[in-house]
Amino acid sequence: MSRDEIRAAVLHCLGAVAPEADLAGIRPDRPLRDQLDVDSIDFLNFVIGLDQALHVSVPEADYGALATLDGCVDYLAPRVPG
Amino acid sequence: MPSLGADMAAGRLVQWLKAPGDRLARGDIIAEVDTDKGAIEIEVFTDGILAEILVHEGERVPVGTPLALIRREAAGAAVPPAPAPAVAEAAQAQRLQVSPVARRIAAERGVDLARVKGSGPGGAITVADVEAAAGERAEEPGARMRRAIGAAMARSKREIPHYYLSTAIDMGPAVDWLAERNLGRPPAERILLGVLQLKAVALTLREFPDLNAWWVDGAAVAKPGIHVGMAIAMRGGGLVAPAVHDTDRRDLDDLMRAVRDLVDRARRGSLRSSELTDGTITVTSLGERGVDAVTGVIYPPQVALVGLGRVAQRPWVVDGQVVARPIVTATLSGDHRASDGHRGGLFLARVEQLLQEPGKL
Hints:
The complex is a heterodimer of chains A (82) and B (361). Chain A is mainly alpha-helical and 82 residues long. Chain A has helices at residues 3-17, 32-36, 40-54, 69-76. Helix content of chain A is 52%, strand content 0%. Chain A is globular and about 30 Å long. The N and C termini of chain A lie close together (7 Å). Chain B is an alpha+beta fold and 361 residues long. Chain B has two domains: 1-93, CATH 2.40.50.100; 161-360, Chloramphenicol Acetyltransferase (2-Layer Sandwich), CATH 3.30.559.10. In chain B, the strands form five sheets. In chain B, strands 9, 12, 15, 17, 18, 19 and 20 form a seven-stranded mixed β-sheet that branches. Chain B has a five-stranded mixed β-sheet with strand order 6-1-3-4-16. Chain B has a four-stranded antiparallel β-sheet with strand order 2-5-7-8, with no helix packed on it. In chain B, a hairpin with a 6-residue loop joins strand 7 (68-71) and strand 8 (78-79). The longest helix of chain B has 19 residues, at 141-159. Chains A and B meet through helix 3 of A and helix 6 of B.
């Protein structure tokens, strides 16, 4: 899976937890939490969404790597199976 | 039309999900109602047969108006349903004096009769009153919710003599226990720290029935079940505090599922009537949004509210040494008519104690 495909999948999962968000306006290097007003349940739903879409089960200890959109892609790219 | 909270004056019947002749079981969802809190599914409070629909789709009626007649099978006689799980205010909704023509025009133009001030004899609402009201544009849902919250909170601050207490709690044992428990589990099976806090509050309430109560007609009435209301922020502003039924009797996995489901449905606008009326205390976790502590406003007719701040690393003294520990500030807002600070202090101390042994929650 290419980085662009992973980025699209991440944005799709973010859109599912924050349907009102302007996904096109997300700054890839800025914390998602500040830009999307997500709480811990939203974040867990995001991680569940990534697991379903990309088959990567992100352990809690690695949640910090998912802080930004760029961080998500960097973290997921080498871990997506196939 | 049940009162779905201290702040509700009227509701519009959006859709009937049952038809005359249908057999009803207690708890069935029979209709959908549009309120200031969004669309709510109305559960029926008794078994029986739906005999007659009294309020039709599209009509907006004041709280307390019978929606339908339900025939109890054994009795055979049709009984007008008492407004279901009424909070204190429901009884006060008096029948409005409206001429049939004015009522029809109000229905056609979407005018909320409960909000129209009548100028006719004895305060009756006239056609002219309805037409004047129809001239004012309908408010956006966000503005309606804001006003509903304002009404409930103003009533709380006007009537409830609040007292406030706070305790700093070491969440270290709970954080460690949870990290180990969630390790290796797929995301869908993980539990959040907030769920441990919710369970600790619920279990503590078993020993503090005076805080798990409603203030009704000048007295505190202890409630038999522990249904903790969870303050949930709505996207785009506003909040609702639906109840997690039997919070104390659920294991952590079950409680986590219930919380996720409730947050999801609150944001989609498909809460059930009992969830809005059954809360016996409220927990607000504004720490999620980064604040250190929150001293909340009690949601009438409840008599207490627990606020949870952010869990953050703080200096903490253990065995004479300063160490960094994950600390949360828990607060209690109490109704001084129902309890006093001494009881409230014991309550917070017990919550703290339970959180030191997370494996037992």
